[in-house]
Amino acid sequence: MLMIEVNGLSKHFGRLAALDNLSFQVATGEAVALWGANGAGKTTALRCLLGLIPFVGKVSIAGLDVAKQGKAARRMVGFVPQELTFHDDLTVTETLTFYARLKKVSADYDFATLLDRLQLKPHIGKRVGDLSGGLKQRLALALALLADPPILLLDEPSANLDIRARDDFLNLLNELKEAGKTIIFSSHRLDVVTTLADRVLLLEAGKLVVDAPPSELEQRLGLPSTLHLYMPQAMAMMALDTLQAQGLPVHLNGRGVRVQVVPGGKGSVLKMLHEAGVEIDDFVVE
User: Fold this and answer.
1) 210-249: b or e for each residue (b if 16 or more CB lie within 10 Å)?
2) Which of 61, 156, 172, 216 has the greatest number of C-beta atoms within 10 Å?
3) What is d(CA 63, CA 60) in angstroms, rounded to the nearest whole number?
């Protein structure tokens, strides 16, 4: 069964084409990544799926036309934005209660199971402002899961998380996928995409250029062999040492490192750095 159908989706901001005739489908229980550099159209696509901005084309969520039945369609979706906004003085319990009322969640909803599943139970009495970034991300996911929607949309779910928190959060999402949730998420990180996605939709300047499983991505792309990795200076030095130890031609480039890789080797470089604890802010392939 198809949970999401997108046909001819286009969105312009003035003369800028943020999305250009985008079409794809997502089946029940599938995890699909919107992958691409910053500005590729990933967040705009998610906003269109939610019916938050007007667009050209057709978007259906669980058979509901988003343009005509937006409110009903949004009830089928839990959304985790990239920028999390909470009332910092409320506790975790108070936050869940507040949003449950907004969403008109049943009074007998099983909050205990949700808190256990997301490992939030030990923190229910804490102020949200005192939570770590990883716990805030879990709380955002808990809010998205209120009323048990069949679809989850996440915008850059690994943003602002350290390596351990990111891995823990991706494990949670994989568990939800295995439980039958349909997931669409945006990311510019290849390691996140390959960990969670069944399919990858590569966007460039608002156009869909590749729709493939992660295992076929590099072969389908035919990417050039220079990888620019952007990261803080301390991380750049770690990356330099890690890649030089593997005999790769790597150089500092002012905002990170530049590395030459053999065809098909970009994923292995990113995986190598991930395993070494190097956090990459962004990357560009040339």
Assistant:
1) beeebeebbeebebeeebebbbeeebbebbbebbeeeebe
2) 61
3) 5
Q: What is residue 211's DSSP assignment? A: E
Helices and strands in the chain, H and E counts: 10, 14
Per CATH, the number for 2-219 is 3.40.50.300
The residues with which 59 forms a beta bridge, in sequence order, are 6
Topology, domain 223-285: Alpha-Beta Plaits (3.30.70)
- 17-24 long-range contacts, CB within 8 A, separation 24+: 17/205, 17/206, 18/44, 18/206, 19/44, 19/45, 19/48, 19/55, 19/206, 20/205, 20/206, 20/207, 21/57, 21/207, 22/57, 22/203, 22/206, 22/207, 22/208, 23/57, 23/208, 24/201, 24/208, 24/211
Residue 56: pLDDT above 70?
yes
Alpha helices in the chain (DSSP H): 42-49, 70-74, 92-102, 111-117, 133-145, 163-178, 190-196, 217-221, 233-245, 266-275
pLDDT tens digits for 262-272?
A: 666 777 888 88
pLDDT tens for 179-215 read 999 999 999 877 788 889 999 999 989 999 999 998 8
Give, in order, the Cα–Cα distances in Å from 267 to each of 55, 207, 235, 276.
34, 22, 18, 14
Q: Of 234, 224, 233, 211, whose CA–CA distance to 259 is shortest?
A: 224
Hey, which residues does 78 pair with through a beta bridge?
152
Considering only CA atoms, which of 80, 106, 101, 82 is closest in space to residue 90?
Answer: 101
Q: What is the pTM of this model?
A: 0.78
Tokens of 3: 């949970």
